[in-house]
């Protein structure tokens, strides 16, 4: 009799792997330390307003990977949704990402696309040829004024580090446009599942070969009965912090409820360093196909992750890559075990990349 497979974590990484292996005939045990499925993508109805809540912060699905898009659409009716983020800085409201409208409004101009491109090039720091940090990338990208208005304060609050301590790769995820396109993402496929993300996870693990263990952790002692372990928890926790604590950020949320419409859009970023929250998300706007008389919004506060906190974002500090490499080497030495997902690989991963990599991990395991 084949020994079962253990999957640690019931977010997208774990659920996709469990689904693929179960359909291939493997017995799979999914262990989830929280009392619900979905990980940080968990969604649920607000009991007071009926609004579908993204319990751990906004999640907009966006991808250009056709395989991923086809896969998720087997389990959900994805409704069209374009994330149009607003930003408040120095008492004024702008649109993000930085585009032609942002540039013209901020500088009081009426630039054409070519004029704006030349203008931004003239204020960017051309002396920075090989940006290493977020700050250097920003100054070489958009110049001092736009950097200080939209990026410096927000980034410091979000990551708990000044941009001079963060890698340039973080900023490379943010577009700069010289047209009036205010779609936050540039992927060809974008949407939000009509019934939420947890509904998808429930369908992925709804298989006779899958046993789900909620509110149950997984330790090294538990692995003895399993042929292979797929682990999506924090990589440093698995190795009992032998190389020290890796840096994570966690989030606190302050709920706001009111009648009607609170802010008129789904997400507003607060860029000023003096404002303690990073953004406010009004969740009824993530489901414009629904109608609610009352509304629910959340102020989002980022802070260092302590013992017992939920780790959200790995902090890829420029000067701490050696520590991470030691953990990755330990992971490579583990037999019959695969580290997956944002926490298991200590990388910032969007949902579509998480699903893509989980499918590929299953492919390799199944020899496909």
Automatic annotation (TrEMBL):
Pfam families: GLF, NAD_binding_8
Domain UDP-galactopyranose mutase C-terminal, first and last residues per copy: 149-348
GO cellular component terms given for this protein: cytosol
Molecular function GO labels: flavin adenine dinucleotide binding; UDP-galactopyranose mutase activity
Domain of life: Bacteria
Organism: Thiorhodococcus mannitoliphagus
Record protein name field: NAD(P)-binding protein
Record-linked InterPro entries: UDP-GalPyranose_mutase_C
Source species taxonomy: Bacteria, Pseudomonadati, Pseudomonadota, Gammaproteobacteria, Chromatiales
């Amino acid at each position: 009799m084949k020994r079962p497979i253990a999957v640690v974590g019931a977010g997208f990484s774990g659920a996709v792997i469990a689904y693929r292996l179960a359909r291939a005939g493997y017995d799979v045990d999914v262990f989830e330390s929280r009392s619900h499925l979905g990980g940080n993508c968990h969604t649920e109805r607000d009991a007071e307003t009926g609004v579908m809540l993204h319990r751990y912060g906004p999640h907009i699905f966006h991808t250009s990977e056709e395989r991923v898009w086809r896969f998720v659409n087997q389990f959900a009716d994805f409704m069209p949704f374009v994330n149009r983020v607003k930003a408040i800085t120095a008492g004024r409201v702008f649109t993000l990402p930085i585009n032609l409208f942002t540039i013209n409004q901020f500088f009081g101009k009426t630039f054409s696309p070519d004029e704006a491109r030349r203008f931004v090039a003239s204020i960017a720091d051309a002396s920075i040829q090989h940006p290493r940090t977020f700050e250097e990338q920003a100054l070489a990208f958009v110049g001092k004024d736009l950097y200080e208005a939209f990026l410096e304060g927000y980034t410091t609050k979000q990551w708990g580090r000044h941009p001079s301590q963060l890698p340039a790769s973080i900023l490379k995820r943010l577009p700069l446009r010289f047209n009036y396109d205010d779609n936050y993402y540039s992927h060809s496929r974008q949407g939000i599942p009509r019934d939420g993300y947890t509904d998808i996870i429930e369908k992925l693990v709804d298989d006779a070969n899958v046993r789900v263990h909620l509110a149950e952790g997984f330790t090294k002692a538990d692995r003895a009965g399993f042929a292979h372990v797929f682990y999506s928890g924090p990589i440093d926790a698995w190795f009992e912090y032998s190389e020290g604590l890796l840096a994570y950020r966690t989030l606190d949320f302050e709920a706001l409820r009111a009648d009607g419409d609170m802010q008129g859009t789904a997400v507003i970023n607060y860029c000023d360093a003096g404002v303690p929250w990073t953004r406010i998300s009004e969740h009824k706007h993530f489901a414009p196909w629904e109608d609610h008389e009352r509304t629910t919004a959340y102020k989002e506060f980022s802070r260092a992750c302590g013992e017992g906190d939920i780790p959200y974002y790995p902090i890829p500090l420029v000067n701490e890559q050696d520590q991470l490499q030691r953990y990755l080497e330990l992971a490579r030495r583990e037999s019959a075990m695969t580290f997956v997902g944002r926490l298991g690989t200590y990388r910032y991963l969007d949902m579509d990349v998480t699903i893509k990599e989980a499918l590929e991990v299953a492919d390799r395991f199944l020899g496909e």
